[in-house]
Amino acid sequence: MSCHDIGRGMNEVVRMTISLLDKGEIEMEPAKKIIATCRAAVNWCDGNEEEASLYISNCRCGKCMKIIPKGEKLLSLYSFDDIIGLQYRDYRTEHIVSDKVCEQCFDELVTKYSDDVTSAKEATDKRLEGMNSKEYISEGAYQNDNNGCRWVRGTDWFD
Ligand SMILES: [Zn+2]
């Protein structure tokens, strides 16, 4: 059984990082580096990288970081890794900081990583028809809980 608490701890840092990004206090690239580090840091325990970036994964593309409006596609790479051919280690090469990406980034990854782009796109469309909508639709807002728990209070004391 894996540890969910280290993911929650790192997700708290991700939440602050995004808050600073949204206020213009830090730039996109340093923000992505911090988020990527939070994901890697869960390996100091038996954590799950995706839990470290849950704060953003229901509304932001994990590659280009665009905020995706509610109801628009936000595709889970994990659900399509067998079709795309993208391995988890490629997240580092591609600077992907959460499992879910926008349609445009998804298409770019399919084009870059799949052996047969046409077949991969057909297989993707077919799988999308049978999927639970939560796996590929943006909620348009950040998570209001930390993987089922309340956020730590007082992390914004210096605002
Ligand atoms: Zn994107």
Named once each, the bound ligands are:
zinc ion
Helix content: 40-55%
Cα-based radius of gyration, to the nearest Å: 16 Å
Total strand segments: 2
Biggest sheet: strands, sense, closure?
2 strands, antiparallel
Shape: globular
Percent of sequence in beta strands: under 5%
Number of domains: 2
Write down the secondary-structure element order.
HHHEHHEHH
Structural class: mainly alpha
Q: What is the subunit arrangement here? A: single chain
Uncertain spans: none
Would you give an account of this structure?
- The protein is mainly α.
- It has 2 domains: about 1-55 and about 140-159; about 70-140, no CATH class.
- The protein is built from 7 helices and 2 strands.
- The longest helix has 18 residues, at about 5-20.
Highlighted features:
single chain, 2 domains, globular, binds zinc ion, 159 residues, mainly alpha, two-stranded antiparallel ribbon, 2 strands
SSE inventory with pairings:
Blueprint: H1 5-22, H2 28-41, H3 49-52, E1 74-76, H4 81-84, H5 90-94, E2 100-102, H6 103-113, H7 117-129
Antiparallel strand pairs: 1-2
Bound molecules: zinc ion.
In short:
This protein is mainly alpha-helical and 159 residues long. It has 2 domains: 1-56 and 142-159; 68-140, no CATH class. Helices cover 43% and strands 4% of the residues.
